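If your schedule permits, I should be very grateful for your opinion on a structural question. The matter concerns a single protein, recorded as an amino acid sequence and a row of backbone structure tokens. Could you please explain, in whatever detail you think fit, how the structure tokens follow from the sequence? I set the record out below, with my sincere thanks for your time.

——
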Amino acid sequence: MSKFKLIITTLTMCIGSVWAGDLEDGNAALQREDYVTALKKYKSAAEKNDVKAQTMLGVIYGTDGYGVKKNYAEAARWYKLAALQGDGAAQYNLGFMYDNGQGVLQDNAEAVRWYKLAAAQGLSNAQNNLGSMYANGQGIAQDYAEAARWYKLAAAQGSVGAQVNLGLSYANGQGILQDNIRAHMWFNLAAVNGDENAIKYRKIIVEEMTPQQIAQAQILARECQARNFKKCD
């Protein structure tokens, strides 16, 4: 089952933050690619416990292209400070770092812990990755039904990876009733975005379907797309 990578994005100002001035200045500096000023402003806000600034420092230290040498340990430190304050993006990214042993010792149980917190806040990346942890029995007891539940939540938000994973769950009857029509539907929806795995799996599943079943799956896919992926199961 496929997983998503780090969330890498310029975060907007945390409304109501006492230290919004430094955060705003940091965001503005980042947009004009003045990384020295951005780092200085984010640190100023982060040291005053601004959660969004802490998350942005995690992004800056954990990825290339922000004018500083990549430092996973420093990224993880800032993500943890923000994650402990409940920031969903930081929780997801910290889970990803535990999942992959970046800046911290690789620890599946810790990855699950942080993915769960971010998934509960509705982050589709976290929901998909948590589903994969359940499906593979990594850091938590294997539970295909729970995996499918999280894939469904993420797929309904338009997560391509989760749509592929949900399609696989239907194709293999893992945690959900085996259903080639539903599998084809989800592969078809994910393939719209050019996902190579979705295209590959769609080609495989049609070999086991009748023309009537394929036509039905295509109708369901159009209807699901029209509903913006909601109530498709």
User: Anything to note?
Assistant: The radius of gyration is 20 Å. The mean pLDDT is 92.
